[in-house]
Specification:
75 residues, alpha+beta, Ubiquitin-like (UB roll), four-stranded mixed β-sheet, 1 helix, 4 strands, binds zinc ion
Length: 75
Amino acid sequence: MTCVICKQGKTAPGTTRMAVERGATVLVVRGVPAQVCDNCGEAYLSADAVDRLQEMLAVAARGGVQVEVREYMAA
Ligand SMILES: [Zn+2]
């Protein structure tokens, strides 16, 4: 699809790094599958990837994590 941010680039399958937070927990997740703009680098996550990030965040929050970097793991 055409990137909605720069309106010039085209997106292609790739991976990105996302930071998500809840309360006192900040989780940085690497290797998240996404459609990435070849012009500006904006990343578009699938609904599945967003759900998975929220699950990983919930687990980290329950574990009392404050700041952590993790690799994306598919459910
Ligand atoms: Zn773009």
